[in-house]
Design goal:
The complex is a heterodimer.
Chain A (H helix, E strand, L loop, with lengths): L7 E6 L10 H7 L3 E6 L7 H9 L4 E6 L10 H19 L6 E5 L5 H18 L9
Parallel strand pairs in A: 1-2, 1-3, 3-4
Helix pairs in contact in A: 2-3
Chain B lengths: L1 E5 L2 H8 L4 E7 L2 H4 L5 H17 L5 E7 L5 H4 L11 E4 L3 H10 L5 E3 L1 E11 L2 E6 L15 H4 L26 H11 L34
Parallel strand pairs in B: 2-3, 2-4, 4-5
Antiparallel strand pairs in B: 1-6, 6-7
Classes of the chains: A alpha/beta, B alpha/beta.
């Protein structure tokens, strides 16, 4: 399925509980370019999910994981880091800026922290331009 | 199982650039176990190729499929409907899988995406070791199920060379000495006496030096 080219896809561990008091709909209204994808554990992420996300048209993908010590599945957060690194390694090989895929461990989560890291990621993606144009790697 | 690794994307691109529609076909057997050509890697390579062409401003139709086994006709039929829609098949099978596809889909170019390396085992997650050369005269029963042909760098059949140190091979300290493994294993199962038996050198005429090998079983034929 094609994703509109301005989209940013955020894969997040469901245990992070990004919106413990609700408000996800309002949040997404403020961030219309965001696709939030909840996964059972960040360790469920695979390198091919991330490359497929970009190949489907998204301009960036962000993986939000729990702190390593806080991972309920013990190794999940550690594994997701490795898989994101592997996906970034592939981007580099292809000649696409690896910064298009970002990995962040946040714990505990707050709306402010989430917004801050999203803003930072959006700025980074804007500096890279549209996917498909020549990029500095 | 057969152990393989993915080729560099530049080498793959060089082989497939001339085609406008590409079917990437994985194999969910041996090469899935060694994380080289299973369903995950097939999706990864297909996505990587799409991104690679996108970056270069070129258009390609890239589809993907994964067969349970690429070396058996009954499974190969699984992509029969997709094949005519594409100019080329990019195979993530081992060398046998690539050639089996070529035999079945006679009018299609088949390009290998993997380098097939050896027959081996998964030692731990992410580590695969070579432990069988397919010599055609298995003598593992004499050696405590540790093959001196595959595991000893010098392929010695009747005892260690004397060059190993601390159980590591003098050819490369990363390699455990095959004969150290054999002796420890025979000791553990109480069969050190096996080492008193003379095992003749391997007759390589039953291996590659005898030309392409085949096995025929009349009871298995249709």
């Amino acid at each position: 399925m094609d994703i509109p080219s301005n989209k940013i896809v955020v894969f997040h561990c469901c245990n992070l509980r990004l919106f413990p008091e609700g408000g996800q709909k309002e949040f997404l209204k403020a961030w219309p370019d965001l696709n939030l994808v909840s996964i059972p554990c960040s360790g469920k992420i695979e390198a091919h999910f991330l490359l497929k996300t970009l190949a489907s048209g998204a301009r960036g993908a962000l993986v939000l994981a729990c702190a390593e010590q806080a991972c309920q599945y013990l190794e999940g957060s550690m594994r997701s880091r490795k898989r994101v690194d592997y996906a970034r390694y592939w981007l580099e090989k292809i000649g696409i800026a690896p910064e298009r895929i970002e990995f962040v461990r946040i714990w505990p989560v707050s709306k402010q922290a989430l917004e801050a890291l999203l803003k930072e990621f959006v700025l980074k993606l804007e500096s890279l331009g549209a996917l498909g144009a020549p990029e500095k790697v | 199982m057969i152990v393989a690794e993915l080729k560099e994307i530049d080498e793959i691109r060089k082989m497939i650039d001339r085609y406008s529609s590409i079917l990437v076909v994985g194999c969910d057997s041996c090469v899935a176990e060694c994380a080289a050509g299973g369903a995950r890697e097939t999706q990864l390579l297909a996505a990587a190729l799409k991104l690679s062409y996108l970056k270069d401003g070129q258009k390609r139709v890239i589809s993907e499929a994964c067969l349970d086994r690429q070396c058996v006709d009954d499974f190969i039929d699984g992509i029969a409907e997709q094949v005519p829609e594409h100019e080329v098949i990019l195979s993530l099978g081992c060398g046998a899988g690539v050639q089996a596809l070529a035999r079945v889909y006679t009018d299609k170019p088949i390009i290998p995406a993997l380098n097939t390396l050896f027959i081996g085992e998964t030692q731990m997650r992410g580590v695969w070791i070579e432990n069988c050369l397919g010599c055609g005269q298995c003598k593992l029963g004499y050696f405590g199920a540790v093959c001196p042909v595959a595991r000893c760098s010098k392929k010695l059949m009747n005892g260690p060379c004397g060059g190993s140190k601390g159980g590591r091979c003098e050819v490369d300290p990363e390699i455990p000495c095959g004969w150290d493994l054999i002796i420890r294993r025979l000791e553990a199962i109480g069969e050190l006496d096996r080492l008193g038996e003379y095992v003749p050198p391997v007759n390589w005429s039953t291996s590659h030096s005898g030309g392409p090998r085949r096995v025929i079983r009349e009871d298995q034929k249709p």
